[in-house]
Design a protein that fits this description.
Layout: H1 2-15, H2 25-39, H3 46-55, H4 70-81, H5 86-98, H6 113-124, H7 128-141, H8 159-164, H9 171-175, H10 187-211
Helix pairs in contact: 1-3, 2-3, 2-6, 3-5, 3-6, 4-5, 5-6, 6-10
Length: 215
């Protein structure tokens, strides 16, 4: 098992060289650590959790012209090269295909405790202090406005609307980040998310006060 995990780490590090900072190796590493923390309180297949966490964003569709088939395919090809069992490969591919937020209206076609753990781990990295940093980093990467009071957040977007949105970065808090607290799967994920959610609310209060010249 250790050889497979070690080889996966090396593969992911190499594959994500030069990636946007919110979706690079360090994102994978943080999600991996979050997943290990959550898994401590769950009955699960730890190998699948580790592989799912490490490979969940191996080829994010945002950076591949919206193609959602590349990530699962790259993961499958790598795991086959490592002689992983078909059962493990299918499970990891299902995690990759069902982990994303996609506007909040995406219905999972697969479910397992391993998916729930990796999904919570990934969502935790999207909120709190690091979530804030990642959001503005990606907004800068896409050359988006920080905030525009005249452009209201758009809730309940379809998957396509969410994928194609170019709204100001601050809108993303309302369109995704502040919604994640209530979409967590595990007790550990819920507990951590509540604290990170409070931090985001504090940040937003300070942001608006500074924007309006009140502090």
């Amino acid at each position: 098992m250790n050889n497979l995990i070690d080889n996966t780490i090396l593969f992911v590090k190499d594959k994500l060289k030069g990636a946007e900072a919110g979706h690079d190796w360090f994102h994978m590493q943080r999600v991996y650590k979050n997943a290990m923390l959550i898994a401590n309180s769950e009955q699960c297949d730890l190998k699948v959790v580790k592989l799912g966490a490490l490979l969940h964003d191996i080829a994010d569709s945002k950076f591949n012209d919206g193609d959602e088939t590349i990530g699962p395919r790259v993961a499958r090809e790598f795991l086959e090269s490592q002689n992983a069992t078909e059962e493990i490969i299918v499970h990891v591919v299902n995690i990759i295909e069902n982990i994303s937020f996609k506007g909040g209206n995406f219905e999972k076609k697969f479910n397992s405790i391993e998916l729930q753990i990796v999904q919570d781990a990934d969502r935790l990295d999207a909120i709190g202090a690091i979530g804030i940093a990642r959001t503005f980093n990606y907004g800068g990467f896409k050359n988006r406005q920080l905030y525009n009071p005249e452009i209201a957040p758009k809730l309940n977007m379809s998957k396509e609307e969410y994928k194609n949105s170019d709204a100001p970065t601050l809108n993303h808090f309302y369109e995704k980040l502040l919604l994640l607290k209530d979409k967590m799967n595990t007790k550990t994920g819920i507990k951590i998310a509540q604290e990170r959610h409070k931090f985001m609310e504090l940040f937003l209060s300070q942001f608006y006060a500074e924007w309006d010249g009140e502090v």
